[in-house]
Batch of 2 targets.
Target 1
Amino acid sequence: MSPPRWRLLGPGLVVAATGVGGADLVATLIAGSKFGYALLWCVVIGCILKIVLVEGAGRYSLATGHTIYVGWRSLGVWTSIYFGPYIVVWGFIYGASAMAGTGLALYALTGGWSVSGWGIVSGLIGLALVWSGRYGMFEKVLAVLVGIMFVTMVGAAILTTPNLGEVLAGLVPTIPEDGLVNVLSLAGGVGGTITLAAYGYWLREKGWTTPRFMQVMRIDNTMAYVVTGIFVVATLIVGAELLYSANIAVSTGDRGLLDLSLVLEDRYGQWAGKVFLIGFWAAAMSSLVGVWNGVSLMFADFMANLRNKSEDDPEAQAGGIWYRAYTLWLTFPPMIWLLMTDQPAWLILIYGVLGAFFMPFLAITLLWLLNTDRVPREWRNKWLSNSLLVLCTVIFGWLAYDQARTALTSFFG
């Protein structure tokens, strides 16, 4: 039997594009504005770490024929106790923030209506695009959005005419004074949280379901994060050239991208600001549509397993009852949150604490799954995979501690 053919467009690009949202771009911009190119090497490390995590999730799914949640459940009930509340709370708050991000971009582009109004429209469009669960159409939509965001951000980087010598110097690992938090955050923030674990589900939707697809999966995953790495490097270049040299600060969160569009408009003309806003919208919309599909697949698998259904049961599939229930959960309750002026602090606390621990949770469970007889011997971890997953655990564990401490300190004063 001939080996399966690989194409540039695949689940890897979907998971990478879904994971790079407005907040990731702003964190990279701020790093560039504070330290110039000094943290460029962190982007490379971040891409390598995400390749390792996503490859591990994909390898488990292809080697065993099971979803990652089935693997987690085999480790004990504690995984469900953590994952159940997390996916419910995360979905509610992420739904609001994703719609706010797309709404902000469209409001800035059009100058009319309101951020929340455009956000609600974006949520409804995302719901319509994924409702049927048809992966082929979903993948094509993501491809268009990735193309837009890539061209606009790389174009903005080229426009700034970066200093190539300084860019290459940034690949030498150094930690600027007071820059440790930025180092770890940037290394950990290149594309994705819970969507990394969705990779195995997208492999299944693509029809890549057996070890025969292992090599294709690895190429797909690596190339996707190479594209993501170029995109994030371009973002850092824009921050370094436009903001660092001029000592300009931008806001945190999605609003920082709006600030950058104004800087581009002031420096290069109105057209540059508008084109960048289109890229900002594409980045926000790709994350929204990707989550509406991928995390809904994870929730469907979670609920079907709790009801002792197999992962092949219609309840666990795209377009099934639980898949559609979660897409509705992502869309409609968060609209109320989006329109609220007072947001309950306790819910933000739960979201912050549960969310902080997902990446170390993923790294630790992959170490456990891929070093035991839950996976055929030939597909278990080798020393390099184990070393990198341990590094992921240390980095994401430190970030989890820092985020949880910050959330608790904020809540309790």
Target 2
Amino acid sequence: MRLTKRELIKVTGFAGIAAATGTQAANAAPRTDMAAGAKPITADERRTRIEKVQGLMRDQGISALLLDAGSAMVYFTGINWWRSERLTGVIIPADGEIAVVTPYFEEPSIRESLMVGDDVRTWHEHESPFELVAGILKDRGLTKGKLAIEDTVRHFIVDGVAKAAPEFEIVSGHDVTLGVRLYKSPAELALMQIANNITLAAYKHVHSKIEAGMSQQDISALMSATTAQLGGAVSFSMALIGESSAYPHGSNKPQTVQEESIILMDCGCSVHDYQSDISRTWVFGEPTAKQRKVWNTVKQGQELALETAQLGVSAGTVDDVVRRYYEAEGFGPGYKTPGLPHRLGHGIGMDVHEPVNFVHGEEKPLAPGMCFSNEPGIYLFGEFGVRLEDCLYMTEDGPKLFTDLSPSIDAPFG
């Protein structure tokens, strides 16, 4: 079974920290807290976000927006909550103050992180939270209209609210939430820069410590421990060796570092909820001619993507241009292997994967504030794979990298 990046968080990220605590890996990690000066998002910025999404809602004739626990709730309110069978949700009306619905016994904890608004409505275990949602809509003067649902709200919540407020039309909240979250502010970019700095510093430390015989789990644990020591909250620490690198998210086949082993790492952390995502590939020992050729081809593709990602260009064009180059080099065609079987990149911010993607068919034009991973790869199933990944953000002058591109297969960190 192959694990997704999200699943790898559990088995290599947090588990890696636990495994490394008190061990040589943890003791070897640098102890400079690179996040010490990071400034969290302020209440004023969250209010500005709410005002912006309310404006978009009015433009689209939407009466209110419903959020479930998750990154969208954190983004607008500061409430960092987990998902369970008990609804903790937020209602943002097109006009007026937001409101929070949560179980009675959770209210004190909810108020600890709530940064905007003061309307918190609670329900007991034998009561319906969906009736509270309907009551909030009524109290905001809303008796009918369009109720927008943020993309990740779970079905049982949508169904419950629809039954409690049948006079409202349930619609997608994708466009209004994306219209705010897609464009990062200077404060958001600053946190992402720190997260990327931490991940790259951790990579440099880990690269210097890798020895023959180390397993994928050994390397992952060292990366997680190092990241934590540097002040990052570990999101994922994936290390793929040899044939495992031929599959973008690896395999369960045991692998250890040997001479001429490809080592592909994909790692990230967060700082005050904002993510990094960096991939590096190199060879333990002297690369073969084939490894060097594939690595150089991937690097050329990453540079080509950066050149293509200019203001006004559609996000899909970035993928298309690189894929055509790889096809000219004998890979593909399209998404077939040997070649690049995944999208060229994804949006990133509070979530590691956010809209919009560098993928064929995506027509969204690039604009200032948008953030992406730039991660072309070439994978030869049964042999090895190469992926290079750095994140960029769009400015008024075009794309800007959070981290410098990897210089060469021989000196992956310069």
